[in-house]
Design a protein that fits this description.
85 residues; alpha+beta
């Protein structure tokens, strides 16, 4: 599956004497369009990833979806055909 980057949300790591602060800023209008595109029942899941050089963080769209019908008990019966709520 191809990676989908959230390009309109950025980070900067600031190191202080005691800890790191990860600052996040968003280009609002463009990020609204991103959210509208990838909206899944009022949710968009993002993962904070670390670059290969370990110097920057970035956001990637989490596209994993559960396969509810694939779960079976030891008798081969479906455990859950749909969400219970």
């Amino acid at each position: 599956m191809d990676k989908i980057f959230a390009n309109w949300i950025n980070t900067k790591i600031v190191t202080t004497q005691y800890w790191e602060i990860i600052k996040v800023w968003v280009k609002v209008e463009d990020f609204k369009n991103f959210l509208d595109t990838y909206d899944s029942n009022w949710w968009v899941n993002l993962n904070i990833m670390t670059s290969k050089d370990w110097k920057t963080k970035y956001f990637e769209l989490d596209t994993w979806k559960p396969d509810w019908k694939a779960k079976k008990n030891e008798f081969g019966d479906d455990l859950l055909e749909e969400l219970p709520f």
